[in-house]
């Protein structure tokens, strides 16, 4: 867990570097500075691993294994104090039967997160409000927050919001890759269905405000994004998105969106998915080979243990033949620089999307988080600004949402 160092030692480290270039910090000094900060990751898909029998995140798993990017030992090494585990449900049929399946899948993921915490009481603790991060970290534990990705899990039942809140959900990403009953998505090839938020979606936003839940605008179409900002009474988050001006992807936020987010008081949490970080020419052969693996085995997260192992063997074999082209931490911090320039230092944070596609060449898993701190130091960010990026801005938004909670 994070090693908390005294303010005097930390001040000495910073002052000792006043007459030298930030790039000259030693590895030891960077580690001390990183570990002195409160570090929170606003979005990971790790629970998709937890739902399978045999998953053990209490022990260290090798990078590149089927156990993913996060486990408790690697969280310790990476200095991660708090993390939002996403209850993600992929979109299925928007029918009564499909909605029931989505709700049941969401409940399974909630149960897996609660079971993980219960099995590791000495190292983890459930976190329900912004102030819990410091409290839990000071106990030498990791704060486990819960978010939900894809409002499809609501179907068209507004009452489920209260149920999910009671289970620990503190934000909901209103949609995912496709339009749902709440709003239009940024990447649905069918185009807009509601021209932004639906009438049901407007009720969802209002009810989330009443419950004190953060509204997550990642994955939303531009029109849906602006519709949310028009009616929400609380600042919003984009839990895992980047800047469109740096990487022209529909999932990223335009400068107009960044300015509107800043006016709303919200925060965009930059994402480590390389396709959102840096534009690449792509690799058609690699994409085709990956699609063939999926066609052969089916959806990884629907497979049993033996099926997942067979899937991973073929998946890793494709990576060895066609190595992925990964963005770098420097590419990621280019997004932070741009967002700071357009929206201000108070409106940017980090949501890795680990275990959901998030990986960089030099921040492949949670152990690499200190490399982001190192790059921020190299570019001259102050310690107070780095703290805002790592958790201060997100927690400010969370507190603002909490203040709206009513009985």
Keywords:
407 residues, TIM Barrel, alpha/beta, globular, disordered N terminus, 6-stranded parallel beta sheet, 16 helices
The largest sheet is:
6 strands, parallel
Unreliable stretches: 1-9, 14-20
Separation of the first and last Cα atoms:
36 Å
Order of helices and strands: HHEHHEHEHEHEHEHEHEHHHHEHH
Q: Name the overall outline.
A: globular
Structure summary, number of beta strands? 9
Question: Quick one: CATH superfamily of the largest domain?
Answer: Metal-dependent hydrolases
Give the CATH class of the largest domain.
Alpha Beta
The assigned CATH architecture of the largest domain is: Alpha-Beta Barrel
Number of helices: 16
What is the CA-atom radius of gyration, in angstroms?
20 Å
**Average predicted confidence as pLDDT:** 91
Helical fraction: 40-55%
Residue fraction in strands: 5-15%
What number of domains? Answer: 2
Structural class: alpha/beta
What's the CATH topology name of the largest domain?
TIM Barrel
How is the quaternary structure best described? single chain
Describe the structure.
The chain has 407 residues and is an alpha/beta fold. The protein has 2 domains: 7-279 and 332-402, Metal-dependent hydrolases (TIM Barrel, Alpha-Beta Barrel), CATH 3.20.20.140; 281-324. The chain contains 16 helices and 9 strands. The protein has helices at residues 7-16, 27-36, 47-50, 72-78, 96-119, 132-138, 160-166, 199-211, 222-231, 255-264, 274-277, 284-297, 305-321, 329-342, 369-378, 383-402; strands spanning 40-44, 82-88, 124-126, 142-149, 169-173, 214-216, 237-238, 267-270, 348-350. Strands 1, 2, 3, 4, 5 and 6 form a 6-stranded parallel beta sheet that branches. It has a 3-stranded parallel beta sheet with strand order 7-8-9. Helix 6 (132-138) links the parallel strand 3 and strand 4. The radius of gyration is 20 Å and the shape is globular. Residues 1-9 and 14-20 have low confidence and may be disordered.
């Amino acid at each position: 867990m994070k090693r908390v160092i005294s303010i005097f030692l930390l001040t000495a480290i910073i002052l000792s570097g006043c007459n030298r270039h930030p790039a000259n910090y030693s590895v030891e000094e960077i580690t001390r500075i990183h570990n002195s900060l409160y570090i929170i990751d606003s979005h990971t898909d790790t629970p998709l691993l937890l739902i399978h029998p045999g998953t053990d995140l209490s022990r260290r798993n090798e990078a590149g294994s089927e156990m993913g990017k996060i486990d408790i030992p690697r969280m310790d090494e990476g200095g991660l104090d708090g993390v939002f585990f996403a209850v993600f449900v992929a979109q299925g049929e928007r029918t009564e039967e499909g909605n029931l399946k989505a709700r049941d899948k969401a409940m399974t993921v909630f149960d897996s997160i609660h079971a993980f915490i219960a099995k590791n009481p000495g190292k983890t603790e459930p976190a329900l409000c912004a102030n819990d991060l410091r409290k839990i970290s000071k106990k030498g534990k990791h704060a486990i927050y819960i978010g939900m990705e894809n409002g499809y899990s609501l179907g068209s039942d507004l009452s489920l919001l209260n149920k999910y809140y009671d289970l620990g959900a503190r934000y909901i990403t209103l949609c995912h890759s496709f339009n749902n009953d709440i709003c239009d998505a940024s990447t649905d090839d069918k185009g807009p269905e509601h021209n932004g938020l639906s009438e049901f979606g407007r009720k969802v936003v209002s009810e989330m405000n009443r419950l004190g839940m953060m509204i997550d605008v990642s994955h939303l179409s531009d029109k849906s994004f602006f519709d949310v900002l028009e009616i929400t009474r609380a600042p919003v988050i984009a839990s895992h998105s980047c800047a469109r001006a740096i990487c022209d992807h529909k999932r990223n936020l335009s400068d107009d969106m960044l300015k509107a987010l800043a006016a709303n008081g919200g925060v965009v949490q930059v994402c480590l998915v390389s396709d959102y970080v840096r534009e690449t020419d792509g690799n058609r052969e690699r994409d085709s080979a990956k699609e063939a693996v999926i066609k052969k085995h089916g959806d990884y997260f629907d497979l049993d243990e033996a099926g997942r192992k067979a899937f991973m063997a073929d998946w890793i074999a494709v990576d060895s033949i066609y190595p992925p082209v990964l963005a770098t931490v420097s590419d990621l911090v280019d997004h932070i620089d741009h967002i700071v320039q357009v929206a201000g230092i108070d409106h940017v944070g980090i949501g890795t999307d680990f275990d959901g596609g998030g990986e960089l060449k030099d921040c492949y898993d949670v152990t690499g988080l200190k490399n982001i701190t190192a790059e921020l130091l190299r570019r001259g960010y102050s310690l107070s600004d780095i703290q805002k990026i790592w958790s201060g801005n997100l927690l400010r938004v969370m507190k603002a949402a909490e203040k709206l909670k009513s009985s």
